[in-house]
Amino acid sequence: MSKTDPLIEVDRVISELRRGASVRVHLGASSVLMLAAEAVNPHSLSTLLAQAGSPLALVMTGTRANVLGMDKADHQACVVSTPEGLTKAVIDYLANPLSALETPPDLMALQLTPAGQLEQACVTLAKLSRLLPAAIIATAGAQTDALNVSVLGIEAYMDIAAESLSVVSEARVPLETAEHARVVAFRPRDGGIEHLAIIVGDLDPEVPALIRLHSECFTGDLMGSLRCDCGNQLRGAISEMDKAGSGILLYLAQEGRGIGLVNKLRAYQLQDAGFDTVDANLQLGFDSDERNYLPAAQMLRLLGVKRVRLMTNNPTKVAALKLHGIEVFERVPHVFAANEHNNGYLRTKATKSGHMF
User: Which end of the chain, N or C, is more open, meaning fewer C-beta atoms within 10 Å of its C-beta?
Assistant: First the structure.
């Protein structure tokens, strides 16, 4: 495998960022040292300062800058700086809405500029690392052994990973509501997190397959959380497929609409403070939905499925599969009764995310 393979390159720097190390992001002759904002502590900050050739700046999403009232323009990302550099307290306040900072900094004293391609890639890399979508950056002023990653590799990572999926394991798994079922595991070429297909019954290639795209939900699927309807949708879909004689549930490794479990728990804290599910994501600096459905389309192609009956209330999923070359023969509604804990969640899905109930 080439050392410049973008999947391997990006996967390695993701591991570095998640353990609190800095990496070098480069675009042509330009480069910056990057540290995930979430990983900032006295040690990581002093280490970065010792290597930096410029004051530290923060790159965050335009969404986060917007909710802070710092920038109302439609920028994908923004760079925040001061001539003296940013302190840990200010970084925490800007990057994390759950920061315990009691006295907000003077935001008017901060300089904000639109991010370029290089800085934007640093935010994308933080998202790929399932960390808060913000990064500390500086030009390099000293020799460093930081791992290198290219902007073009970061930008291409999700599509290349999806297109590189292959079947790595398969087994018969009798289920409570579908005894004739099997599970197929798909892994990207970089050895990343697997996506799964739960196949119920025997598929007829001449008939559009009944399918569901189900993003993993640890709290709902495994723990039976009442904050969402995910557990009901998971088990209900498998049951309906068994009744229909066959079907495929694609279990996608996209927890929390693509922001990861830790960030989903942060969003729950914000929801308890009064934000709805969409606004909680925006407060964290994410889009309302960060999912990518190219992996689902690739999994279907590997299974030989080109036409589907899609069990969903979300029109975005219908459009996404069509965009990626899968014919959606029919949208099949998939609705379950609300409870006192998820009433607001389901209402927000309908009013802000366009779900059809």
Answer: N
- pLDDT tens for each residue of 175-186: 999 999 999 999
Active-site annotation holds for 18? no
pLDDT at 101 over 60: no
Active site residue 204: no
Per annotation, catalytic residue among 64, 130, 257, 291: 291
**Whether pTM exceeds 0.85:** yes
Q: How far is CA 292 from CA 83, 90, 201, 258, in A?
A: 38, 32, 27, 8
What residue spans define the domains of the chain? 6-159, 164-254+291-353
Catalytic member of 18, 289, 307, 347: 289
Q: What order of strands is seen across the sheet that includes strand 111-114?
A: 111-114, 77-81, 57-61, 134-138, 30-36, 23-27, 148-150
Architecture field, domain 164-254+291-353: 3-Layer(aba) Sandwich (3.40)
CA angle, 175 as apex, 170 and 178 as ends, to 5°? Answer: 100
